[in-house]
Amino acid sequence: MADQSDLELVQHAKTGNLEAFEELVKRFQKKVFYLSYRMCKDPDAADDIAQETFIKVYQNIGTFKEEYPFYTWICRICMNLAINYLRRQKFVIREAQLENFDQFIESQGIPDKLDEISEDEKLLETLRENIEQLPTDYKAVLILKTYENLSCIEIAGVLKIPLGTVLSRLARARERLARKMKVKRSE
Description:
Blueprint lengths: L5 H9 L3 H23 L2 H18 L9 H20 L5 H14 L10 H14 L3 H11 L5 H8 L3 H24 L1
Helix pairs in contact: 1-2, 2-3, 2-4, 3-4, 4-8, 6-9, 7-9, 8-9
């Protein structure tokens, strides 16, 4: 099964072939996890979202239209679940997550003092923090464009919004990031 195309696997999975579906999961599980993690920044929630994504894919594979890329369809399901999660949680960082992060930092030997981190690393961390503060709609478009390398047309399909909305959200997200980064640099 590993040598078959995504479309061939989907066609087999539609007939109830579990081996084909398992191969699809293997191919896309990391991408789906990382996409959900980039949206929610909580590994446990990202894992739950990824699992729920594949449950929904399994339940609805019969509705997949084969003229479209399979990853775009999975991506749409994952993004919808991640956005719903963020709306429910309002993305509150819990103390337990911070403790786990501190433990991870210590175990990796990563410097905990800002002056031990290069300017590029500081800039990258500031950029990540600013992305996290964007409204969910802007963040979703920016992550799909930047991390998933989807075209604006593909993003419109994933999020089920008009192309013009994708373009305006992307422009506004970039404007907000540029303003925030400019303020941070001047401080």
